[in-house]
Structures are given as structure tokens and as C-alpha cells.
Amino acid sequence: MKNVLKNVSLAILLLNMCLVFGQEISAQKRILIDVGHGGKDGGAIGINKIQEKDIIMDIANAILKLNKELEKPLDIYLTRYKDTLISLSDRTKLAKVIKADVFISLHCNHSDNPNARGVEVYVANTLSQYSKEAAWLAFEFHTSFKRQLGFESRGVKFANFQVLRETIDFFPSVLLELGFLSNTDESKYYQNSENFVVMAKVFLECLNKNFKYYGRAWN
Ligand SMILES: [Zn+2]
Q1: Most buried one in 7, 114, 133, 213, CB count within 10 A?
Q2: What backbone torsions phi and psi does residue 179 show, to the nearest 5 degrees?
């Protein structure tokens, strides 16, 4: 019964995507942005009770909106468009079903230390033919978020996270921890809606820059 339920939820997820974007074939690179948490899983709770699931939904929506305004928009999909909980395995299955070129998981951080701050970018700690591209993309994000947005850098790190482990054999995948909601400055940053637009711009520039160099390798 559990299996049937799981498959039904993946089918609903796919159906949602078709309704949103249609099934047209695009020559552009296909990016799956994994919007972490959702539904009863709020993720980290920050200062002023802001929830990680809401912040990253707002970031993802800003990316979608800005992308549509580009001359050559990328083919971007999200793992969730609403406040719903999707299992980690369905998120990675979805990436394979839609034949993503890149998988990027969005999160925000939390610490008991209110001074902890900055951006961390994670790459799978197992080697695959896509490790190099994933590491380059991770460095690009990490450098741009520091230089252009002023976030402190906590570095590119290697980890055995499920969403990275289950994707790195198929395409480059990275997980972004976009600041600490437990830090006053960084949670305030997300209370200004204009910052979502700026972050979306930097995010799309990082992707485009990397495709220029690694586009062929990712085909
Ligand atoms: Zn998270």
C-alpha cells in the first residue's frame, strides 16, 4: 500500500508540472530546482518565526519570474509549486523522469549560535562523471553569493545528503544553504522582497555562466 501511495504522489507531482508548463520540448538546459521542505515540514524556524519552507518558495518563485523575462529563458521546473510535502526520493525521481540537466536543492540554515552566518554549498561526497561540473557550479554559486550579495562564505562542502547521493550519477547536483534564519541580519535580509529579485538574478547568472563552459559536457 505504501508503494502505491508513493507512486500516486509522484504521478500527481508530474501532472502538476504538465499543467503548469505544458510538455513542450525545449532545446534549453533543463533545471530542476528542489524547493526544500513544505507542508507539515516547515524546515528551520528563524527569527520572527519565519519558516525556511516559505523563504525558499519565495526565492524559487522569484527565479521563475525573472527567468520568464529573459531573452532566452532556461527550462526551469520546481519540485513543488505549493506548500506541500514531497518525499526526498520523489524529488530525485522527478529529476530523472524529466531528464534534468542540473539539480539544485534550495535550503536555509539554522544554528543555536545566533552569530552563525553565511552561505554553504554542498556537493555529493561520492565521485561520479558529474562531480567536476557539480563542484564548478558550487564554486560559482559560493563566489557570486559572496561577491554580489555580500553573504559570508562558509565554503563548498562535501556531504552524503540523500538528494545529492541519488542524483550525482545522472547529472550535476548541488545543495545551497542560503544563509541562517537564526541570524538577525540574514533573516532580516529575507524580509525585504527586493532581495529575492536580486538573489534570483545572481542565481540565473551563475547557471548561465556555467552552461557556457560546461553545456556540451552536460548533453
Ligand atoms: Zn532545509
Answers
A1: 133
A2: 90, 165
Give the confidence band of 28 by pLDDT, cuts at 50, 70, 90.
confident
Return residues with CB closer than 5 A to ligand 1 (ion). Answer: 36, 43, 107
Residue 102, pLDDT > 70, answer: yes
Residue 55 maps to which CATH number?
3.40.630.40
What separation in Å is there between the alpha carbon of 25 and the centre of ligand 1?
A: 31
Residue 169: C-alpha distances to residues 85, 101, 136, 143, 172 (Å): 25, 12, 16, 25, 8
* 117: Cβ contacts below 8 Å, ≥ 6 apart: 151, 152, 179, 180, 183, 185, 186
Domain count of the chain?
1
- The reply to whether 53 falls in a domain is yes
What percent of the chain has a predicted confidence (pLDDT) above 90?
77
Domain that holds residue 210: 28-214
Distance 219 CA to ligand 1 centre (A): 30
Question: Is residue 22 a part of any domain in this protein?
Answer: no
Could you tell me if residue 56 is inside a domain? yes
Q: What is the pTM of this model?
A: 0.87
Q: Are 9 and 87 in contact (CB under 8 A)?
A: yes
The Å distance, Cα 98 to ligand 1 centre, comes to 23
Q: Domain for residue 21, yes or no?
A: no
Interval 138-164 mean pLDDT: 95
